[in-house]
C-alpha cells in the first residue's frame, strides 16, 4: 500500500498569500483533469444455464416468447457464432471469470463430475473441484478501477472457501457449490438466499436481488454477474405460464421443439431481463451500462429427468455434453446503447473473450497471461479479431452420452478428435453448420493441419488426454 508523505506547510501558505490567483488556477486545472477523466461503464453479465442456441425468438425460435431479450438483441450486437469454452457448465463459468481456457486451471468437467464406470474405455480426466484462489477473476481485476461487484445466482465453482466472496466479489447472493437449483425453483434454500414462501420463484427472486444491487450502487461503477439457475433441470415453471404454453402447444407438442414447461421458464427469465433494462432506464444508466447475455453451454437435447429433452438445437447437431455445435454454440448478445451499433456478427467469439473486453473498456491492464482476445473493435467498429483458432478439451464422459474428446475451429473448418479410438471428424461449418457431412476422409491434409494445431494447443495449456480404464468391460462381450 502506498504511503502519504506529509510536506511542510509554510511554503504552500507563502505561495497562496503571494499569489491569490494560484488557488483559482489550481482549482481550474483540477476541474479540467476531472472532466477529462473517462467514465468507465457498468457491466451486467447475464449467464443462463443450459440455454440452447435456438431457444430465443431473435435466434429463430417461434414457440418460446422472448420480447425483452429480442429487444436486447435488436439494440445491440447479436453474434451468430458465439461459443462456450466447454459443453458443460463449471469450466465455462470459470473461463468467463478468468479469460483462460479450462485446462489452465484444471476444471474440465462440471463439479464434481461423474465417477469411472466399467463400461467406459477411458478413465475420467482429472477434474479440479474449485476455482483456484490464485486465479484472477473479473471482480478482482476490476476492483482497482473502483468497481463494486456482485455475484447473484449460481456459482458452482467450489465450496465455501472458494465462494464468490473469496474470489473478489463484494456481494454473494445464492452462490454455492451447488449446480442445480437448491431445493428447486420454488422452495429454494441456500445460506444466503431462501424462498420467502412456497410460491416465490427463484428466477424472479434473483432478478429482485439484482435490481436491489443496481439501485444501491447506481452512483459508482458496478459489475453485476447474474448467473441464473434457469433453464437447468429440474424443469419447473409458474402455473399460469405453464397453462399458457400447454394451450399453445396443443395436444401433441413436438418433442424438444415445443416444450411448455421449458417455454414458461424462459418467459420468466425474459421478464427478468425486461425488468433489469427498465431499471437501468429509470436510473438513467442505459448508456453507461454494457449488458452481456449468453449461456454456459448448449441446450439439453437428451432425456435427463421429467419434461426432457428440454429443447432441440436443430439445425445444430446434438446438445449439452457434446463437442458438436449444439453443445458449444450459444446465444451471445452484447448491448451498449450509444456506443455499440445494432447489428449481427458472424465472427467466431468464445467465452474467454469477455474478460479482456471488460478490462479494456474499464481501462484496466491485465495482470497475467490470458487466452481470450478483446472484442472492443468488433463491438464498436465491426472489426473482428484477427483470424485465430478456437479450442475445446473435454476428456470426460458426460451424463448426456458423449465420448471424451477435443475440438478446434479455425475459420470455417472444425475438427473433432475422439480420445477412445483417435477418430477424427472434419466439418465445414459455413456449408454444413449441422455437421452432417464428415469430410475427413476426402481432406487428409486439412485434418493433419488442424490436428497439429490442436496438439500444440494442448501442450501450451497442459491439457491431458485420459488413459485407459483398467476395469473396462465391453458390454457386448
Summary of the model, kept short:
By secondary structure, this protein is an alpha/beta fold.
How many helices? The count is 13
Order of secondary-structure elements? HHEHEEHHHEEEEHEHHEHEEEHHEEEEH
Strand content bin: 5-15%
What level of helicity do the residues show? 25-40%
Shape: globular
* Coarse structural class: alpha/beta
Largest sheet: 8 strands, mixed
Strand neighbour order, sheet with most strands: 5-4-8-1-9-10-2-11
* Name of the CATH architecture of the largest domain: 3-Layer(aba) Sandwich
What count of structural domains?
2
What is the fold-level CATH name, i.e. the topology of the largest domain?
Alkaline Phosphatase, subunit A
Which blocks of ≥5 consecutive residues have pLDDT under 50?
1-37
CA distance, first residue to last residue: 67 Å
CATH class of the largest domain: Alpha Beta
The CATH homologous superfamily name of the largest domain equals Alkaline Phosphatase, subunit A
| Average pLDDT | 92
Radius of gyration (Å): 24 Å
Q: What's the number of extended β-strand segments?
A: 16
Key descriptive features of the protein:
single chain, 477 residues, alpha/beta, 2 domains, 13 helices, globular, disordered N terminus
